[in-house]
Amino acid sequence: MKRLITTRRLSQTFFFLLFIYILWSTTYPLTGILKPDILFKLDPLVMFITSISERLVLPGIIFSFCMIAASVILGRFFCGWACPLGSTIDLVGAVRRKRRELTDNANAVLRKAKFFILGILFIFALFGKQVAWIFDPIVIMGRFVSLNLIPAMTSAINSFFIFLIRYLNLGEPARDIYRLLRPTVLGVKTYYFTHAAAIFLFFLAVCAAALIVSRFWCRALCPLGAVYALSAKISPFRRTVDKCTKCGKCKSRCRMGAIKDDIGYVPGECILCMDCIYDCPANVTSFRFVLPWKVKTKATNKKSGAGPKISRKNFLFLLLGLVPLLGAKSGEKNAGRYVAVVRPPAALEEEDFTNRCIRCGNCMKVCPTNALHPVMFQSGPEGVWTPQLVPEIGYCEYYCTLCGRTCPTGAIPALDEGQKLKVKLGLAEVDRSICLPWAEGKECIVCQEHCPVSEKAIKLDTYSGGPAKPYVDEHLCVGCGICQNKCPVRPLRAIRVSPKNADRTKVR
Amino acid sequence: MKDIHSSFTALLNRPVSRKAFLKILLSSFAFLSLSGYFSKPAQAAPEETSSGRPKKSIKAIHDLVVAEGDDPYLTTVRAVEAMGGMERFVKKNDIVLVKPNIGWDRAPEQAGNTNPEVVAALIDLSLKAGAKRVNVFDVTCNDARRCYATSGIEKSARKHGAQVYFPEEWDTVKAHFAHPSHLEGWPVLKDALGCDVFINVPILKHHRLTELTLSMKNLMGVCAGNRGIMHQNIGDNLADLAGFFNPELTVIDAYRVLLRNGPTGGNLADVEKLNKIIVSTDPLLADIYACGLVNVEPSQVPYLKVATERKAGISSIGEADILTIKA
């Protein structure tokens, strides 16, 4: 039996399910065995690039060093055995039975592309811009799971139960099962995210590329793969072939295009999927530890380029990728061009925030009121998919500190409860032209009722006659948005929060 | 151009097998649901209508009992016993709803929610009287999980054997009133109507719009929908709700009382300990008595004014049979 392949598939399934479990349990009261930020602290790409662009050493970067060390010894085991995006891509690729065999040259071009991407990310980071979030596989997968997969699954299970109970009249026992499932597995709220479609389409494109060329994303584009490819180069864990019959079967079956025409292979490209051991009809392929000095003597044909070579042409290509840097502007310069958005509590100052935020979606997943949503272009090209507060859908819960506690990079600082109560997200303002007491003389003051500040940041004008009319005390308002959320006026709410007066954390 | 046309017609004329059709259907469904197309909260409008719970008018030994004591659990038990015991209200195999105020993400000391000990006492008494099942829930204002946890009610009610759960927005019926009402057709929780015994357990506290939140205000917690709208004509609306649900027993928690900055509070300086529990079969009488504890004129409370005008119950403390005990 293909024992190694079965083991690999079990490992992939395990890490895939673990990944989903960790994000599934990223919800109030956050009692999961593993905290969600660990997923991203294990990711050297976002940790290194964010550290470089922010000129600091992120806490938890030690975990990603461990991953590098492990891949120096074992090679790109992460890509083949653990990466949840890689597993998904394998699954999509399995739809296509016959793998397309590319020429050595085509494979070399493909595998080079990811090093360019890594190089561009690195140079952007040197200039103080973190754009690793676009290409990082863990981030892409995490965002998909948190913002697409889990909402769709819970919504489907919810609808199923509602259908059973409402239309089939299953009565109390079914209701009780449902009531048990809601707080434990499904979540009390069914989440909905704005712009979820854009996030899903991006994920879909990454996965669907595997239908054209197997593991296209992993072999051609993934910059995390490039990081591991660099460290895997010196790995002593090698594929060895004794007495090869040159049938070429392993080459045509290799999902990463790591095997060359002469049956030599590129260690940095091999993800240890173990296919070639079983594809080999002569049964002479194996993986074993080879002492480093012996590797040197057995080194395969160097001409075909095992890694990136920076020729003049390649260097010019690299420069081409840096053109977007010209247009990059700081948050302040962007003011006026884009609408400012309400950020999560105590988020770093705008420029540092968009830099530090890796768009993993943890804060949006964990927010108990579904208040945080990905921005599209409202806050400029730098702000794509960063979180913003959307008070129409949810509000910032006064005593809650979960978003900061799940943020892997500290873009939203972890606050304690005492600090959180004082943090201003913005300022609410009453729109007197549509507010019921002001405009129509009706009694209402729902905003004042819900205001969580104990002295009430919403004060009442009772002197001018008629029902009490609300107005906001600028010094007390924390901008949590519950007033806007609960305001009964539609379609536009009569009290709205803007980012004015927001407390943003200074990094430097 | 012709090429495109012919290949397009070829595509259209190609037979699609049942299997292929199902595949296309399923994958487009998966595509849409993963894109978040279906995940907007389903606000299914209720289809059934209900004209509320009938008034049972169970006769107790007294119209109202007010008990004073340091231990909220014991005080509640004594007060109910002085009314003639829970057996008068709860019969064997009854389904009982104990409806506390769990509206806010506030701890018991902050007096924003009903005291968990009072809830626990009522659960114990109901189960001892033979109740088949005791339900505890509230439609909260803050995040439901946080409210249930911080208030201490979830933990204490579960410990004492009640079913604590989050009510469903879709599991509602349309309210129908015999008289013209602003709340005609309002979605109300099915579970609040289906119970045999409704025990309303509000906490006495300040509220800017209505002066005080009392038993009638607590009934907003079994209504779904955009409840902020109820604040217009709040007096009529809450009096309507009281006549719609007709709780058999009203237990007002005046153990810790939030005197200012209600209904949320938060500052312990606004809380005063009165150590009192009010039990009555008449919601209006209970509310009016509670007003006296914090020196509020009942006529200033809009819903009490309306309920008094409608003669919904005993509105004069002088006419009522009131027992005061120390626990």
Can you walk me through this structure?
The complex is a heterodimer of chains A (508) and B (327). Chain A contains 26 helices and 8 strands. Chain A is elongated and about 100 Å long. Chain A has 2 domains: 3-144 and 200-321, no CATH class; 333-498, no CATH class. Chain A starts with a helix and ends in a 10-residue tail after the last strand. Mean pLDDT of chain A is 89; it is low at 297-308. In chain A, the strands form 4 sheets. A two-stranded antiparallel sheet of chain A has the order 1-2. In chain A, 48% of the residues lie in helices and 6% in strands. Chain A is mostly helical and 508 residues long. Chain B is an alpha/beta fold and 327 residues long. Chain B has one domain (49-326): Rossmann fold (3-Layer(aba) Sandwich). Chain B is built from 11 helices and 13 strands. Chain B has helices at 2-13, 18-34, 72-82, 116-128, 144-150, 153-159, 190-194, 215-218, 234-245, 283-293, 302-309, and strands at 49-50, 64-68, 95-100, 133-136, 163-164, 172-175, 187-189, 197-201, 203-207, 211-213, 249-258, 271-280, 322-326. In chain B, strands 2, 3, 4, 5, 8, 9, 10, 11, 12 and 13 form a 10-stranded mixed beta sheet that branches. A 3-stranded mixed beta sheet of chain B has the order 1-6-7. In chain B, α3 (72-82) crosses α4 and α9 packs across α11 (302-309). The longest helix of chain B has 17 residues, at 18-34.
3D shape of chain B: elongated
Instruction: Please count the helical segments of chain A.
Output: 26
Helix share bin of chain B: 25-40%
Oligomeric state as shown: heterodimer
User: Biggest sheet of chain B: strands, sense, closure?
Assistant: 10 strands, mixed
**Count of discrete alpha- or pi-helical segments spanning 4 or more residues of chain B:** 11
Share in β-strands of chain A: 5-15%
**Structural class of the secondary elements of chain B?**
alpha/beta
Largest interface: A-B, 56 and 44 residues
The total tally of domains of chain B equals 1
Poorly predicted sequence stretches spanning 5 or more consecutive residues of chain A: 297-308
> How many domains of chain A, as an integer?
2
Number of strands of chain B: 13
Radius of gyration of chain B: 25 Å
The biggest beta sheet of chain A reads: 2 strands, antiparallel
